[in-house]
Amino acid sequence: QVQLVESGGGSVQVGASLRLSCAASGRSFDPFAVGWFRQIPGKEREWVALVLWGAGNTYYSEPVKGRFTIARDNAKNTASLLMNDLRPEDTAVYYCAATAPRPSGSLYRENGYDYWGQGTQVTVAS
Questions:
Q1: Deepest in the core among 75, 81, 84, 107, taking most CB within 10 A?
Q2: Residues whose CB falls within 8 Å of the CB of residue 73, separated by 6 or more in sequence, listed in order
Q3: Taking CA 59 as the corner, what is the angle to CA 58 and CA 64, rounded to the nearest 5 degrees?
Q4: 81 three-class SS
């Protein structure tokens, strides 16, 4: 079983930066992809970014493209999400998730992932 633990959330002002981390533990961690999602109350979980664990290719949703950077450290079994130029609409609970090999189209959806962290709150005040 794989456990994922997010950290690094907090409350910041508009324009600030935060770096979220996702640490994996448990049995040998070698996912196909790791993604970051976010969710606000009453709405569905929204895909934010993903990285292909082996190749390192990264993909971003349009609202965060150019501001967020996802990275992974294979040796340390960690992933991160650097968030720059934060905006009030970025306020959400952020989750990291990992998955075994899947069709690429499923990686942009919540049901495309096998393991989830507990989430970390990010609040951006205007």
A1: 81
A2: 79, 80
A3: 120
A4: strand
One-letter amino acid at 109 equals R
Tokens of 20: 């979220």
The tokens of 15 are what?
């324009």
Per-state percent for the chain, helix, strand, coil, to nearest 5: 10, 50, 40
Nearest to 35 by CA among 121, 24, 91: 24
**Mean predicted lDDT score pLDDT of the chain:** 96
Long-range interactions of 100-105: CB distance < 8 A, separation 24+: 100/31, 100/32, 101/32, 102/32, 102/33
Distance CA 70, CA 19 (A): 10
- Assign 94 a pLDDT band (cuts: 50, 70, 90): very high
Rounded Cα distance between 51 and 59, Å, is 7
pLDDT reading at 90 higher than 80: yes
